[in-house]
Structure formats: structure tokens, C-alpha cells
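Just curious. Invent one:
>
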Amino acid sequence: MMRMNLQLFAEERTEKATPKKRREARERGQVFKSVELNSAVTLIVGLLALKFTSSFMMEKLCWAYDRYLQANALFDQLYTYTGIVAMAKEIMYTVALVALPLCGLVMLAGLAINYWQVGFIFTTRPVIPNLSRINPLEGLKRIFSKRTLVELLKSLLKLAIVVLISYQEFMADIKSLAQLAKWDVKRSFIAVADMAFNIGIKMAVVFIILAVFDYFYQWWEYEKSLRMTKQELKDEYKEVEGHPLIRSRIRERQRQIGLRRMMQEIPRADVVITNPVHFAVALRYDPKEHDAPVVVAKGQDYLALKIKEVAKKHGVYIVENKPLAQMLYKSTEIGQAIPPELFRAVAEVLAFVYSMRGKRI
């Protein structure tokens, strides 16, 4: 029973998503954003654009009314093919002038708020056919899921708000609406526009408040969906870093290769300085290649014995100097030149070795 409980706990998604998991989710198009925030921002921008362009829109609509709908309009010019085409062009041009500024600003607002939420992302994975999407069981799960219930409640709440605000505004302006038939086009347009703007502003304020809550809810839901189990974290670590057994074998192989190369350099050394048991450091000095003697091999305990064996086999001089061997081993890595503070001591050793060989430094 305890083992089962531990297994269930291990499978719970309690860990935060790793950067790799987030990157893969974004590549799949799985990002969090609040549709309510998009709707609220575009609604506000649309209302403000409508407010500032209302005079221009009214001017163009009144011009179209005077030209085609009043009693003194030149109807005789409209009973020909040329007249109908000309009228259609003028109407389309007028509608474009009236609608394009409003539609353009709303579109830019939608793109801006969408970019602010998710940034730029291009992926084709969401449109790739997936058989699980047509699975009836999966479809039922999505229909009766908590997310679907939340979306339904939000939609019902928004609908209730729209109906309530519209009803209140309509009842407040019912007397003015009854006079629309008696007013001219300009006055009627202004009255309807004011009522629509008041309704829109009230709804926009409420929608913004809902959008803020929805934004944080979508963020919480997104973070929850990306959570990982402890086993998934372990599997991802193995995938990125490699299996521990494989890594240890690679390191062991690297050590073997490095040891083999080091042993191959010992025959070219000038001297091996020993502790004499615990440390052994092989030095090589070539004035044409280096400004100072270079450590070509070093080792401790068993490896020190192997270095001395190879040195004896190839006739490399072995000099016992305990303090110098310890300082060289601790201060210098293989392939590095000895530090300046050891120049004098090493020079004395090399001078002794060269004198035994009859060679000058």
C-alpha cells in the first residue's frame, strides 16, 4: 500500500515546467492568452475610433442620403446601366471611406494586444491532422471538461451583462427613440450614435474587469497544464544530459585516452621529478617551442609508479625532489608551462640532467 501511494505521488504533476518543456509547448502553438482581453481592448478601441470619426461618418452618410434618397435626387440618371454602375461605385467608395478607418484601427488593436500576450509565433502543428481530435471519447471529455464549463459561464455572464446594460439604456432613452421618425437624418444619427456609445462604454468597462480576471485564470490554467511529474523531470534530464551510466563510460573512455596520450609523451620528456613514491611529474623543455619547461605528464600513487616505469623503460632521467615534485603537481596542469617561481629550481634539475647527458641548456 505504501509503495502504491508513493507511486501515485510520483505521478502527480507537482513540478514546474522546465524551459525545454515551455519551448516545446510554444513550438506546438500551446500558449496562454485571454480572448476576453482581446475582445475588451478591441471594443474600447472601436468605440473611441467611432467617437472620433463620427462627424466624418455622418458627413459622408448625409451626402449619400442627399444624393440618392431625397425627393430631388436625379432618379432619371439611375435608370441606365451607366448610371447604376456609377452609383454602385460611389456607394462602395463612400462605405469604404466610412468603414476602413474604424475597421483598420480595430484590426491593429487586435494584432497589438495579441502580440503583447503571445509575441510572434508561427507553427503549422495545430492544423496537422490528429486522429485523437475525432475520437468520440476525447470529444466528450472536452465537452464536459472544467474548461468548457468555465467558458460557458463566462459567455452566459457576458450575455447577461449585455442584455442588462442594453435594457437599462433603452429604457432611459425610450422617449428619444420615439422621436426618431420626426427628426432629420443628422439628428437621428447623433441620437443613435450617442446611445450606442454609452452602451458600449459601459459594457467595455465591465468586460475589462472580466478580462483581467480571465487573463490571470488563463495563466494559472496554462501553468497547471505544463506541470510535470518527477519522473518526467528525470527523463528529460537523462535526455538532455545523457544517461548517468553512459556519461560515466564516456568519462572513463576520455580518461583512458588522456592517460594513453600522456604515457606516449613520457619518452620525449627530459626528466621525471618524483616525491619519490606519491608524486611524479615529467618535464620537457625545447627552447624552439616553449619559453619555459612544460609538464607533459603527472600522476599520484599508482599513476606515479606507471610514469616512472615508462621513464625507466625509455631512459628518461628520474630525479628525486620531494618539495619540487609536490609544487609542480599542485600548481601546473598537463600541457602548461611551469610557473615563474619554480624556474630556478627546475633549471637546476635540468642543468644536472643535461650535464649527465653532455647537453647544454
